[in-house]
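Record format v2
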Amino acid sequence: MRKIIRYNNVFIQDTASTAGQKEAEGPLATSFDLIDTDAYFGKPTFEKGESEMVRITVNLLLSKLNKKPEDIDAVLCGDLVNQCASSSFGVKTFGIPHIGIYGACSTCAEGLALGGILIDNQSFKTVISLASSHFCTAERQYRFPLEYGNQRTPTAQNTVTGCGAFMLSDQPAVARLESSLFGIISDNGVTDQNNMGAAMATAAVDTISRYFYESNETIDDFDLIATGDLGYEGHAIATELLAHRGIKTDERFTDCGMLIYDTKRQDMHAGGSGCGCMATVLAGHFFRQIRENRLKRIMLIGTGALLNPNTVLQGESIPSVAHLITIRTEK
Amino acid sequence: MRKIIRYNNVFIQDTASTAGQKEAEGPLATSFDLIDTDAYFGKPTFEKGESEMVRITVNLLLSKLNKKPEDIDAVLCGDLVNQCASSSFGVKTFGIPHIGIYGACSTCAEGLALGGILIDNQSFKTVISLASSHFCTAERQYRFPLEYGNQRTPTAQNTVTGCGAFMLSDQPAVARLESSLFGIISDNGVTDQNNMGAAMATAAVDTISRYFYESNETIDDFDLIATGDLGYEGHAIATELLAHRGIKTDERFTDCGMLIYDTKRQDMHAGGSGCGCMATVLAGHFFRQIRENRLKRIMLIGTGALLNPNTVLQGESIPSVAHLITIRTEK
């Protein structure tokens, strides 16, 4: 089996996105619904701030669609903070049935793919899927205290401060969730946690290859194919590996981590990363273009590095996974 | 909507369970497929050991059913270690599409409930759902270094070293996954991380009440109703709260955390906890009774405390969630 899942009637009703200061200084600034330049989002700690960002984003999404929490049958959510606390604390006041997921930075794609199945199976009528990350909570959890001001390597990526949320239901809307393909864990032996693009590139290539192999489609069937957060380093590797497999790519093949910052001007090294990277770029930038009919059919590949700081300290390489979804307009 | 999900054709083909020393000293010892009294499971660290336990359990399950990894369409898995590393590292060599979930100690129920939807939607033909926990990885991550030998409070629970795995498909088998109900996050203000039973009791009561309210069933419709790991403290609270709501319980209402240890003899305070608690008790003890037709219809309620050590340090209370499944024999 392990086939591409084809959804019958799953639509993205609308999206909401919240982002931080660095994202607001980048080229996609106007695509986000809400920007807060306060990394604390008005709270006393970064962690509480990230949860507040999640809470605000859910409220934005509900408000856009004039929905109340009780109209939502489930929220699928995840983030990078230990025990996915940012998202669960962020949604805890809504009283919506909670389905916690963890796919590292592939969480956005995993949630949409799973959410689509819940809707298509008519188990649920309306679900919200969301993913969140925060530079300050990730940096001090995965790397160093912020106060330390450590230097970063050229292949390092910058965790996006952002949350993207999506409302799915079977009611026709501008964007149809068309298909998905869950990823197989790939471990290519990369041990450098400052080069997660290289660790994740093989997972992305594997899932993209499986999709094209089964579907007989090519990049020409899409207006855009975007990985989640391979960054410049991982994108270059993935492009080369796809070429080796005879899979043609061109400028339509891009990466959310390359798009979210003006990398050189903002000194962002290899680009953006984090669950919030694909989530905000899809919810904001891409969804706007879908709405304006400038993108008609797109493929997104969420890429997740399944490490934690201890696995690195214990000498493990970095396993990765990439979940794929395709979206097309109904126009 | 938010209704009880009723599965059409989802069956638990078989289960596998692996457990550690303390579990082997308890009353359910003979129900586990494999016991390893080495907390390292032959590996150099506890974390690598937990992953090895997961890997062994998947192999046990595949072997029982004479299946190969390529016969499995997806593995839903989760654990308590940061970034769910124990389970993802444990399954990474199988090449099975990976769906990471996080529900703290409700993970076993969450995975079965979600896996059932994937099968019923015919998105997948065969999936494995598993949950794992390990006393030594949890203790040093959540509490103190083991070497410190700290004393525990009377309401503290002991994290089960164990992994339980389940194979689901639409092929008729001894046990049918009948229905599920996803939990709503409950936060009753408990801040004591050594009293997670009290924190989780309200979540369990909420989900059980919702189930009975919608279904018009009572405890008399079940041979057994077991929460995941409320322990003695949480079980007493839940029993009282259910009575306040007019929901009758009797000796058929129990808790996996109360069953897995001989609490007094083993000095286990309020009982067992951890993702592996419900997973191993269901996969071992309960499933054996289902197979022997001594249990015909059971309700399991996975209970998860959605904290991490930082949320406690930052003064947050402990939100909890409880996911419910019902299973019945086909005999």
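Chain A touches chain B through 56 residues (CB under 8 Å).
The first helix of chain A runs from residue 21 to 24.
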